[in-house]
Amino acid sequence: MSIDVLDQAIRRIREHVLAHDLKSISIIFHGGEPLLAGKKFFEYAVPEIKKTLGKVCTVKFGMQSNGVLLDDGWAELLLRLKIGVGISIDGYRELNDQHRLDHRGQSTYHQVVNAIKILSEPEYAEIKGGLLCVIQPDSDPVELLNWFRRFGRIPVDFLFPHFNHERTPPSAFDQNHGYGYGLWLSRVFDHWWGNDVHEIKIRTFEDLMHLMIGGRHAVESYGLSAVQLAVVQTDGAYEAVDSLKSTYDGAVSTAKNIFAHSFNDILSEHLVASRFERFENLSKTCQHCRLVKACGGGYVPHRYHPALGFNSPTVYCRDLMFLIEHIESRLSVRLDEEMRERMRLNLTATPAFFPDREPAVVPSIAE
Q: Is CATH 3.20.20.70 the classification given to domain 3-266?
């Protein structure tokens, strides 16, 4: 991104913040690989953004990186600029090397692990983000979760790969488990729920559980809360979310740019507007499903159907249904156990709250 594009983007952001009286925003440097922009870009961009926006709203900075270039020098700069960093890695070397080789076909595994280790040092706790892992359902979920534990208390998010109804997942489909991703995640959940729930934060599960018990907020992959984000490309073009590139050529295009149009101007674009009114833009099948408040119809790129567009349940519908119902059953067991224990403690303690009365015979559920 050139300085001219950056400066205009900052002006447009300020214009939007003032128009809507926004108190706080997040600016995420994404890619491609954002570190390829170079240190001088960030040394200019962040102070300039703070100078222009600092008096009108609070700005939080983040970045998603493949970690290949991240060394001590980069970590020191990102800490100074207060840019939180998430790293993409698919697990141990055999898994990561399947889809994350460099342009020469060489493994990036050791560079990425080194980046995670740097960010795991105490001095970088302020900017250490989570790890994004794309699911490979033929891998051993328990082995992978144990591998992630080596990095300590760092959040992990498991992502469905970008397939859809035209380009379907390569694994076999069955009516109970879908393509096997929900089954794989259920095994991760059982191991995490039984052993690591306080050691590793897994956003996938925590978001789903939050939504299942009546919460509203979650990341854009789940739930029905409005997704309030806009994408500015390096040339200044406004785009829909970049993962839509996995569906068809031109899916992200809005034909608008920061020099000629405001952020408000892109709200009329369907794939932008539909993320604000999420329920109304779901298929009828999803609208009538009892699980819709949790799954949200699935991630938009995974809904794409060559005949129906995005008006279709996600290609991972059966996977999500299996996973959510599996989590429901585990939550039910845990809640039943905790409720029985609370009732036992509360009933046993009841006479102490009524010292003037004769103690009643208090049944013990434990009996």
A: yes
